[in-house]
């Protein structure tokens, strides 16, 4: 392989003086408030990380990328980088128009000169890019349930980088990394992509990869958006810094990449390779199940364990980066060292701790052996993830009106308060509607806003170590899932379906609402004239017919105990 061309790559920023002028002019333009994912994408567009893209994809580029991983001009590009917006916003925009792109505080980061506006076929995008139109895939769920329905495309004029207040010294643009490699005279650089804390096996593997390729090592973790439920990037970076000391200083460096991952396995590996090429690296480690999203809704892995390596190999020349394939490293007890799984000496004992097992040990406060990880890393992880019995959590009741949610929730609250230890807050449907959502009605849009407000408050309570008990109807699966994701970032989400049949709820009709709904005097009434999507896999389902409230609340307590959230 030839020596790397470490000359600067094109960025989309204008000069400082022009930026000042443009910023004032852009104040007059219609503006779009970027979502967190769009901010990540925009940063890498502007700083050349997504070179050769010059902006958000046009419709022709998008079609090519979705169909065969190529832009309209034939260049390899596997991931649709699109600006999704709401229908309402799109209605006011016409091709030929410039719009200002703002961050979440309202700062103008760039101008998009809109050339294309279209309604994408999201099912096709899911099938082609992610391999299946299955909501168990986080990016497919994002596509259908978070991303707006209309895409805008066109070139970007960059005004300023998104501001980061954390780990500033560890963030580098592609050109800053290129300059660093040039300065140090590094000719071969192998990059390691990760969204997880580094344990000894990773250290061993990166070490070996660098040795094999006779290259310097770039630890290049993603700190933009990763898979819901991952260890937050603040904790991870503290862990990486602890591990960095274990590498020879002169051969290894670390830089943080503000990428929003899509977990697209094989396509994602090719994309990661192109992004790393832009950052000046020559080699890239592709592991087993690279950027894998886990299991689909049938419980089967979305991609084969080596699909990513195969696709990368196929496009290696065009990517311009050599693949170093990941050997799954395991600890061999008798040798007290790590070996690639396929090179373990015969008759030896192999020790391994999976990600799931590690999370269990953290959750339950169990031992994590030194052969597995560095004590500094374990300390950091324990600081962020105390045992479950000390973390906050949310119990989320869902069910029809009159199913008994509020009554069971109240009983549960009292039982938990009797146990003590953590503050308990009840967010009952009716109470929330009085205090938080008094202006809302019962359309799908309003119900979603209501549930997301409850989810937000519950996530803050969970984050701060308390117990939130929610008891709204919450009739829509996708909204409940969004709330789950919000909360699982901080603690457990325990969904309890109060599965009282509609006939029973109507028979009880404690508030007289079913009668009014039948007479058409209340519109959009759940179960009568509005849908209720029952949860497919709640943590617990309780039926209240012929069962007393105390027993139902007790079933929840038993579930919480079984999950390690409370101690008997
Ligand atoms: S939702 O769908 O989750 O936002 O509903 P929620 O906030 O839990 O509010 C439900 C309570 O509002 C009363 N109510 C109605 N429910 C359903 N559909 C319609 N159209 C409606 N109109 C008023 C009802 O008392 C619900 O309380 P619960 O405790 O569920 O009986």
TrEMBL record:
In this chain, ATP is annotated as bound at 399-406
Gene Ontology CC: one annotated term: cytoplasm
Tell me where in this chain the APS kinase domain is found.
391-543
Gene Ontology molecular functions: adenylylsulfate kinase activity; ATP binding; sulfate adenylyltransferase (ATP) activity
Query: Which InterPro entries does this entry report, sorted A to Z?
Result: APS, APS_kinase_dom, ATP-Sase_PUA-like_dom, P-loop_NTPase, PUA-like_sf, Rossmann-like_a/b/a_fold, Sulf_AdTrans/APS_kinase, Sulfurylase_cat_dom
Q: Keyword set for this entry?
A: ATP-binding, Kinase, Nucleotide-binding, Nucleotidyltransferase, Phosphoprotein, Transferase
Q: Which residues form the ATP-sulfurylase PUA-like domain?
A: 8-160
Q: In which pathway does it act?
A: Sulfur metabolism; hydrogen sulfide biosynthesis; sulfite from sulfate: step 2/3
Q: Where is the Sulphate adenylyltransferase catalytic domain?
A: 171-383
Against CDD domains, the record matches this protein to: APSK, ATPS
EC number of this enzyme = 2.7.1.25
Q: Which GO terms describe its biological process?
A: hydrogen sulfide biosynthetic process; sulfate assimilation via adenylyl sulfate reduction; sulfate assimilation, phosphoadenylyl sulfate reduction by phosphoadenylyl-sulfate reductase (thioredoxin)
Q: Does the keyword rRNA processing apply?
A: no
Catalysis: reaction(s): sulfate + ATP + H(+) = adenosine 5'-phosphosulfate + diphosphate; adenosine 5'-phosphosulfate + ATP = 3'-phosphoadenylyl sulfate + ADP + H(+)
Q: What does this protein do?
A: Catalyzes the synthesis of activated sulfate.
Q: Which family does it belong to?
A: Belongs to the APS kinase family.
Q: Which PANTHER family match?
A: SULFATE ADENYLYLTRANSFERASE
Q: What is this protein called?
A: Adenylyl-sulfate kinase
Question: Mind giving the lineage of the organism this protein is from?
Answer: Bacteria, Pseudomonadati, Pseudomonadota, Alphaproteobacteria, Rhodobacterales
Q: State which gene encodes it.
A: cysC
């Amino acid at each position: 392989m030839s020596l790397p061309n470490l000359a600067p790559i094109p960025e989309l920023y204008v000069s400082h003086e022009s930026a000042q002028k443009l910023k004032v002019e852009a104040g007059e333009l219609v503006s779009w408030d970027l979502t967190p994912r769009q901010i990540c994408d925009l940063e890498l567009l502007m700083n050349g990380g997504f070179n050769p893209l010059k902006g958000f994809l046009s419709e022709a580029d998008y079609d090519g990328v979705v169909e065969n991983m190529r832009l309209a001009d034939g260049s390899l590009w596997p991931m649709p980088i699109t600006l999704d917006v709401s229908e309402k916003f799109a209605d006011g925009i016409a091709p030929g128009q410039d719009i200002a792109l703002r961050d979440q505080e309202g700062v103008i980061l760039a101008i998009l000169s809109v050339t294309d506006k279209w309604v994408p076929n999201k099912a096709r995008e899911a099938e082609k890019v992610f391999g299946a139109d299955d909501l168990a895939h986080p990016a497919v769920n994002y596509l259908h349930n978070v991303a707006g329905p209309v895409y805008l495309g066109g070139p970007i004029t960059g005004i300023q980088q998104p501001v980061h207040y954390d780990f500033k010294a560890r963030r580098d643009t592609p050109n800053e990394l290129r300059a660093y490699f040039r300065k140090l005279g590094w000719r071969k650089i192998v990059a390691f992509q990760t969204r997880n804390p580094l344990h000894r096996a990773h250290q061993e593997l990166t070490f070996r990869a660098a040795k094999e390729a006779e290259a310097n090592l770039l630890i290049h973790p993603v700190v933009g958006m990763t898979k819901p439920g991952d260890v937050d990037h603040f904790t991870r970076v503290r862990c990486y810094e602890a591990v960095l000391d274990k590498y020879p200083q002169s051969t290894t460096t670390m830089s943080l990449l503000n990428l929003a991952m899509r977990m697209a396995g094989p396509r994602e590996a090719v994309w990661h390779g192109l992004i790393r090429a832009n950052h000046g690296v020559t080699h890239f480690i592709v592991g087993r199940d690279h950027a894998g999203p886990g299991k689909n809704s049938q419980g089967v892995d979305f991609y084969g364990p080596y699909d990513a390596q195969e696709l990368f190999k196929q496009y290696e020349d065009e990517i311009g980066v050599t693949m170093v394939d990941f050997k799954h490293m395991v600890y061999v007890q008798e040798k007290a060292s790590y070996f690639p799984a396929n090179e373990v000496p015969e008759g030896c004992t192999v020790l391994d701790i999976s990600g799931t097992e590690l999370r269990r040990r953290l959750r339950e406060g169990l031992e994590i052996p030194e052969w597995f990880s560095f004590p500094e890393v374990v300390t950091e992880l324990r600081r962020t993830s105390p045992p479950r019995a000390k973390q906050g959590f949310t119990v989320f009741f869902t069910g029809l009106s009159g199913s008994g949610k509020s009554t069971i929730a109240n009983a549960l609250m009292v039982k938990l308060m009797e146990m003590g230890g953590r503050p308990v807050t009840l967010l009952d449907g009716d109470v929330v509607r009085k205090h938080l959502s008094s202006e809302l009605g019962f359309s799908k849009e309003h119900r979603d806003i209501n549930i997301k407000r409850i989810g937000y408050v519950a996530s803050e309570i969970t984050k701060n170590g308390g117990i939130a008990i929610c008891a709204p109807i919450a009739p829509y699966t996708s909204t409940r899932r969004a709330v789950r994701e919000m909360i699982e970032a901080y603690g457990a989400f325990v969904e309890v379906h109060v599965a009282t049949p509609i006939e029973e709820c109507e028979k009880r009709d404690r508030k007289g609402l079913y009668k009014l709904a039948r007479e058409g005097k209340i519109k959009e009434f759940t179960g009568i004239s509005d849908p209720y999507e029952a949860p497919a896999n709640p943590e617990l389902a309780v039926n209240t017919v012929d069962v007393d409230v105390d027993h139902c609340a007790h079933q929840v307590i038993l579930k919480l105990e079984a999950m390690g959230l409370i101690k008997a």
